[in-house]
């Protein structure tokens, strides 16, 4: 029963979706300010979700695999919710987690983009197939950077694969306070940007080129689940970075303010990046991760060996 509560309510589906919706509003509000607009009301993410879930019709493609098409958003939401639970439990000190949970989290965070690919291919839409192809190339690019960065963090934590141990290893000073930690922060921020499908890495959606690409055939309740997945990941990814580089999060006493500032600060950086950069071509994005971001992480790893 306790495990079900963790998954469905706190810190899982309901909690992560609520905070993610607030962060989505924050992201859109900052974007509006950058563009000298007023921006949406506070409850706009909730309105968008409910409108799709309860009002808009679900249209299923005439061709393709209907069951896979409809199952993909559910699979993506499941992966996002489980990864949120495994990140937030040790982050909030609710549960010590288990040895190797950071590796499990790495794989779980891959479920949403893989589900998007399955749904796009199942729709039998040529533009969705283009989006799926781009998503596959992006995953190949940024996941190598992501796993190398995690390897450097694991080394800094004394070769521990437990998220709780990584948090404990930062009791004497956060990893982001070192030169290597700053390089890892830059690499992980761009990986998060790509995982969230935000500019300059929104190549798989590219509204002006392939009309939302992977999601072109989605509407109604399935699209609402995709929105919900994106809300959860908008919270989970910054929370994960805060855990592995900024010593975790806390919901006790004055520390809660510091935790909120960590997450909102990271989301602010993500928002500013997407509002100050043009969309990259897929070959530019692949070169960016496979060459430059991997180089950043390798340099960070070398600096870590020298205690920097």
Protein described:
- It is a single chain.
- It is globular, with a radius of gyration of 19 Å.
- The model has no long low-confidence stretch (mean pLDDT 91).
- The chain is an all-alpha fold.
- It has 13 helices and no strands.
- The protein has one domain (2-305).
- α4 (66-91) packs antiparallel against α5 (101-108), α4 packs parallel to α11 and α9 (179-195) packs across α12 (255-275).
Features:
308 residues, mainly alpha, 13 helices
In brief, what are we looking at here?
Helices cover 70% and strands 0% of the residues.
Helix content: over 70%
Mean pLDDT score: 91
Major sheet summary line: none
Radius of gyration: 19 Å
Please report the total strand number as a whole number: 0
Structural class: mainly alpha
Q: Which band does the percent of strand residues land in?
A: under 5%
Morphology: globular
List the total number of helices. Answer: 13
Low-confidence runs of at least 5 consecutive residues:
none
Spatial separation of the terminal alpha carbons:
45 Å
The helix/strand order is: HHHHHHHHHHHHH
Return the domain count.
1
């Amino acid at each position: 029963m306790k495990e079900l509560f963790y998954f469905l309510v706190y810190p899982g589906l309901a909690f992560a979706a609520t905070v993610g919706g607030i962060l989505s509003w924050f992201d859109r509000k900052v974007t509006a300010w950058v563009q000298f607009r007023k921006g949406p009301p506070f409850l706009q993410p909730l309105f968008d979700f409910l409108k799709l879930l309860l009002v808009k019709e679900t249209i299923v493609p005439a061709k393709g695999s209907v069951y896979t098409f409809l199952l993909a958003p559910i699979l993506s939401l499941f992966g996002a919710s489980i990864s949120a639970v495994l990140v937030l439990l040790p982050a909030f000190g609710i549960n010590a987690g288990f040895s190797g949970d950071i590796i499990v989290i790495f794989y779980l965070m891959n479920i949403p983009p893989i589900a998007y690919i399955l749904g796009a291919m199942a729709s039998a839409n040529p533009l969705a197939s283009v989006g799926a192809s781009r998503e596959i190339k992006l995953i190949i690019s940024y996941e190598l950077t992501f796993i190398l960065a995690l390897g450097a963090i694991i080394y800094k934590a004394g070769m521990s694969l437990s998220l709780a141990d990584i948090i404990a290893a930062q009791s004497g000073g956060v990893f982001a306070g070192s030169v290597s930690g700053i390089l890892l922060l830059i690499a992980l921020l761009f990986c998060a940007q790509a995982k969230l499908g935000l500019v300059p890495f929104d190549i798989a959606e590219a509204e002006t080129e392939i009309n939302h690409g992977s999601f072109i055939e989605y509407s109604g309740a399935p699209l609402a689940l995709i929105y919900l997945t994106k809300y959860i990941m908008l919270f989970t990814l910054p929370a994960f970075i805060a855990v592995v580089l900024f010593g975790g999060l806390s919901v006790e006493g004055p520390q809660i303010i510091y935790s909120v500032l960590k997450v909102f600060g990271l989301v602010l950086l993500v928002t500013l990046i997407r509002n100050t950069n043009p969309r990259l071509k897929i070959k530019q994005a692949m070169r960016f991760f496979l060459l430059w971001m991997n180089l950043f992480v390798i340099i960070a790893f070398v600096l870590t060996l020298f205690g920097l």
